[in-house]
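Translate structure to sequence.
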């Protein structure tokens, strides 16, 4: 694998940054220590500008090439936040903060982009400008949307933007990417069923919302199995059911909550419309009333064709042609890099994390052996996108 020699030399230093971040996880927008460390390192690297407070607590480093005649700027993005999980890895560098851990590898993402920033600031072997973007609140806070709303693209003149995520189960040394939807839209719904409560021994005198809720859960599965093209992808999962307080009382109401995951905007629209119209009709058939509140979350992470092909070529240059899956299976998990890809052309790529625990589990850890691959990918992408 043609890892950049200078990056190989930086491997231990980057690993040190990663493990320090791992030991001090912060969640959502409250990433003051992490952002402070990023800002200090970018300043020490000699970035031409370091801007903090983007999207509340995000950081952007600006690195100009030997020349800027091209007038082009590309953005490279990493996420900084951790998760509200108690770590069980027992690593020497395990979380020192109770109830918080880097269970998704954002510590690795941040460290690899810092390594790339150090290399690019040293060499400046490109024509144009690189904006290294360190984003807060990917895990449910839509920090990507906040940075976009704060003028990220316009302020720095970013023309293309790229992201990366480690991927457990994919061998270290491999990459995966696909054109189009690579990660799903993440929507939520809440259903309120209003029946008629009463004594549990006299169900005939009630309109039982528990029975309605139970049958509705099964009926909702047909939204995908009997309405969505089998070649398309969609998930409707009911994850919460709340009803009643006593074993001898049929309650007046019941509540359901859940998530919808889709990889296509038309399918997303269809399921939202179906839920909002079908749920009241279903409840009415039992003599009850019901309402479905549908809340859209992160959009589909949609890779642009030209930038996907380019990113795959860069990955192949780093890892080898046979180590890049150009049609990797999409994930039904969500990613708020989608907000950036709605604003600018770009691509999101998976980096193999080896045989590790799954993301968002208490025994997950980022694989430091992947650092040279990810960091080399960033620097080669910058140099090839902005050639001298």
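Result:
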């Amino acid at each position: 694998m043609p890892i950049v020699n200078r990056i190989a030399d930086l491997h231990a230093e980057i690993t040190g940054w990663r493990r320090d971040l791992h030991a001090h996880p912060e969640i959502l927008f409250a990433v003051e220590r992490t952002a402070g460390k990023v800002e200090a390192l970018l300043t020490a690297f000699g970035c031409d500008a370091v801007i903090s407070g983007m999207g509340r607590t995000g950081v952007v480093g600006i690195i100009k090439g030997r020349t800027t005649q091209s007038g082009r700027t590309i953005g490279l993005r990493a996420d900084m936040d951790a998760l509200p999980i108690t770590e069980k890895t027992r690593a020497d560098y395990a979380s020192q903060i109770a109830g918080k851990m880097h269970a998704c590898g954002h510590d690795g993402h941040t460290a690899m982009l810092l390594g790339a920033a150090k290399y690019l600031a040293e060499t400046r072997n490109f024509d144009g400008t690189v904006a290294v973007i360190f984003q807060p609140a990917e895990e449910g806070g839509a920090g990507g949307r906040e940075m976009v709303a704060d003028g990220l693209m316009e302020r720095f003149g970013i023309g293309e933007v790229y992201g990366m995520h480690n991927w457990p189960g994919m061998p270290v040394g491999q990459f995966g990417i696909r054109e189009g939807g690579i990660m799903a839209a993440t929507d939520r719904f809440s259903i309120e069923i209003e029946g008629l409560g009463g004594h549990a021994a006299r169900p005939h005198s009630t309109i039982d919302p528990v029975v309605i809720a139970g049958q509705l859960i099964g009926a909702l599965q047909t939204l995908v199995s009997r309405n969505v093209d089998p070649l398309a992808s969609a998930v409707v999962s009911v994850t919460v059911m709340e009803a009643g307080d006593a074993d001898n009382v049929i309650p007046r109401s019941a509540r359901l909550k859940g998530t919808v995951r889709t990889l296509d905007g038309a399918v997303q629209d269809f399921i939202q419309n179906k839920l909002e119209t079908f749920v009241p009709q279903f409840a009415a058939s039992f003599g009850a009333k019901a309402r479905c509140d549908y809340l859209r979350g992160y959009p589909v992470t949609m890779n642009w064709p030209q930038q996907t092909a380019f990113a795959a070529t860069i990955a192949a240059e780093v890892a080898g042609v046979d180590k890049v899956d150009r049609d990797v299976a999409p994930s039904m998990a969500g990613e708020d890099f989608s907000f950036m890809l709605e604003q600018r052309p770009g691509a999101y790529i998976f980096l193999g994390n080896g045989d590790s625990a799954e993301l968002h589990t208490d025994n997950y850890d980022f694989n430091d052996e992947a650092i040279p691959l990810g960091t080399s990918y960033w620097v080669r992408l910058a140099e090839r996108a902005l050639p001298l």
